[in-house]
């Protein structure tokens, strides 16, 4: 079991460290950099949207879905306030009331 | 001394909502492993060494199901492959720093820390490095405390992610993404990412996360090019 855990640790560290290794002989050009500038919104959104729309039965697009209404409120608060604490509180608050 | 305290505190406070949002998952990682026959030592070691929530949760189920080692490692690699993108994206900011900074930064380069890496000068001054490491390692410590609680509570606690507390991570990610949408290209990126991820994940496609991220980034990049060409012509 510990062998498996250690090997897993090597893999996750490898994926995080590889491109921060100086001996890798390449430079990220301006076009590639532009492409990569979209990675944070792309990955983070790809993580949170399925949490909202997918449940155990599959895709749930109904307005009765508490994840959906809470997400819409969170989006509005995030857009208006740019504040992570207010957004999380408003979203979680509504979610707990609805759920 | 004073110049170190400020970025330390700011890193901790910026990461705090995310530390709290992953409570359900951290506890689940601890309790699920114990329920599946891991010793407390092995369970904690996993969070201390692997430090990757989604990979840990999947691996616990696979190990419990007596899955061959290579399959477990391959799955870990697939789930972790999004980190290649993060490394590429911050490479030009971090690469000039000596090993003693790059090593710890890469160890804590999670989705959460990457979300705080967009500043043009991120990782490039000592203050910003201290800020990043404070944020990264406070998340690391929190993750391990939640795991420990899961180990101790074991079967006593209900699965908090089934109670809908998984919404907390969605709310924090919304707070991180929405204020950053300042142009059409980023808006398109976000819409494509959400659409593709929901579609691909619901079909059970294993590479859903990396594929939808790459599709979304391509869409955002394409919009930038189109807008640039239009501006150049007019």
Give an overview of the whole structure.
The complex is a heterodimer of chains A (99) and B (234). Chain A starts with a helix and ends with a helix. Chain A is built from 5 helices and 2 strands; from the N terminus they run αααββαα. By secondary structure, chain A is mainly alpha-helical. With 234 residues, chain B is an all-alpha fold. In chain B, helix 2 packs across helix 9. The termini of chain B are far apart. In chain B, 47% of the residues are buried. The mean pLDDT of chain B is 93. The interface between A and B is large, with 65 and 88 residues.
Distance between the termini of chain B: 54 Å
Assembly form of the protein: heterodimer
What's the helix-strand series of chain B? HHHHHHHHHHHHH
Low-pLDDT residue intervals, each spanning 5 or more residues of chain A = none
Output the strand order for the largest sheet of chain A. 1-2
- Enumerate how many helices of chain B there are, as a single number: 13
Mean pLDDT of chain A: 93
Structural class, judged by helices and strands of chain B? mainly alpha
Overall helicity of chain A? 55-70%
β-strand percent of chain B reads: under 5%
Secondary structure: elements and pairs:
The complex is a heterodimer of chains A (99) and B (234).
Chain A: H1 2-17, H2 30-36, H3 39-53, E1 54-55, E2 58-59, H4 66-81, H5 84-98
Antiparallel strand pairs in A: 1-2
Helix pairs in contact in A: 4-5
Chain B: H1 2-21, H2 23-35, H3 40-49, H4 53-64, H5 69-80, H6 82-94, H7 99-107, H8 111-114, H9 126-153, H10 161-165, H11 167-177, H12 184-202, H13 208-233
Helix pairs in contact in B: 1-9, 1-11, 2-3, 2-4, 2-9, 3-9, 4-5, 12-13
């Amino acid at each position: 079991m510990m062998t498996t855990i250690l090997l897993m640790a090597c893999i996750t560290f490898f994926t995080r460290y590889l491109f921060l290794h100086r001996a890798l002989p390449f430079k990220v050009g301006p076009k590639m950099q532009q492409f990569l500038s979209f990675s944070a919104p792309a990955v983070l959104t790809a993580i949170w949207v399925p949490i909202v729309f997918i449940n155990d039965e599959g895709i749930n697009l109904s307005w009765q879905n508490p994840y959906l209404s809470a997400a819409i409120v969170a989006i509005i608060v995030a857009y208006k306030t740019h504040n992570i604490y207010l957004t999380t509180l408003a979203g979680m608050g509504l979610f707990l009331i609805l759920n | 001394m004073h110049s170190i305290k400020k970025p330390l505190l700011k890193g901790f406070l910026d990461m705090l909502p995310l530390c709290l949002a992953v409570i359900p998952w951290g506890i689940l990682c601890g309790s699920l492993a114990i329920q599946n026959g891991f010793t407390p030592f092995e369970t904690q070691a996993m969070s201390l060494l692997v430090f990757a929530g989604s990979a840990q949760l999947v691996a616990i189920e696979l190990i419990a199901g007596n899955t061959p080692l290579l399959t477990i490692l391959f799955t870990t690699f697939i789930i972790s492959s999004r980190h290649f993108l993060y490394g590429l994206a911050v490479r030009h900011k971090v690469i000039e720093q000596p090993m003693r900074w790059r090593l710890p930064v890469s160890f804590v380069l999670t989705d959460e820390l990457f979300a705080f890496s967009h500043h043009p000068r991120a990782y490039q001054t000592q203050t910003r490095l201290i800020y990043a490491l404070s944020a990264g390692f406070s998340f690391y410590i929190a993750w391990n405390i939640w795991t420990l609680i899961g180990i101790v509570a074991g079967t006593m606690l209900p699965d908090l992610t089934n109670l809908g507390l998984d919404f907390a991570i969605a709310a924090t990610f919304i707070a991180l993404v929405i204020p950053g949408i300042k142009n059409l290209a980023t808006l398109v990126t976000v819409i494509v990412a959400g659409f593709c991820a929901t579609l691909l994940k619901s079909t059970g496609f294993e590479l859903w996360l990396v594929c939808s991220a790459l599709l979304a980034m391509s869409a955002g990049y394409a919009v930038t090019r189109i807008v640039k060409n239009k501006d150049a012509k007019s």
